[in-house]
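in:
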């Protein structure tokens, strides 16, 4: 039991420390990390495109007309090449897409609030919250690179905080269980003497 507890605690502490380091890496170098992730996705898309294309070539002639593997392999190859050649544009497009989703969600929220304002007690507060959402979405669309830096800092801080809290809880748990096991050993030794 004690060796299992020590091993679990040791691994948990190591994982928490690695996550703290990852949080700092994301805060300091997040765009580079994101670019490498997009490039890795580009490589995976190209590999999948080649596999699909080879699979398409091996199909019997009658199945080639009803399968869409050729189209999918071409689309995946194009997306993979774009991700490899211009990862920064892909990152910008990703944040622009997120900003558009935020804007649409805010507009739908405003539509809901204005449609049911007679039934809502605090419709003005809900209206301003939706308006703030729309403004945030516009900011994200207008400044995708700046937004990525802010989002990365927030994600990095969240990872660091949760990892430090986890680290503290593992250390506390280890100390508590170690103290409890020492008390059990002392009770066993005392009962052996009597």
């Amino acid at each position: 039991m004690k060796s299992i507890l020590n091993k679990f605690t040791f691994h948990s502490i190591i994982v928490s420390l690695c996550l703290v380091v990852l949080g700092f890496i994301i805060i300091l170098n997040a765009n580079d990390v994101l670019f490498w992730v997009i490039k890795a996705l580009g490589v995976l898309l190209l590999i999948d495109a080649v596999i699909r294309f080879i699979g398409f070539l091996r199909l019997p002639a009658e199945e080639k007309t009803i399968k869409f593997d050729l189209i999918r392999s071409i689309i995946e190859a194009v997306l993979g090449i774009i991700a490899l050649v211009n990862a920064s544009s892909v990152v910008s497009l990703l944040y622009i897409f997120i900003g558009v989703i935020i804007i649409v969600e805010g507009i739908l929220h405003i539509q809901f609030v204005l449609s049911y304002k007679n039934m809502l007690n605090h419709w003005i507060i809900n209206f301003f919250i939706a308006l703030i959402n729309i403004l945030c979405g516009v900011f994200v669309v207008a400044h995708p690179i700046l937004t990525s830096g802010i989002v990365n800092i927030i994600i990095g801080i969240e990872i660091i905080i949760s990892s430090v809290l986890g680290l503290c809880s593992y250390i506390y748990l280890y100390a508590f269980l170690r103290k409890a096991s020492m008390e059990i050993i002392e009770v066993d030794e005392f009962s052996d003497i009597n």
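note: Residues 2-89+145-188 form one domain.
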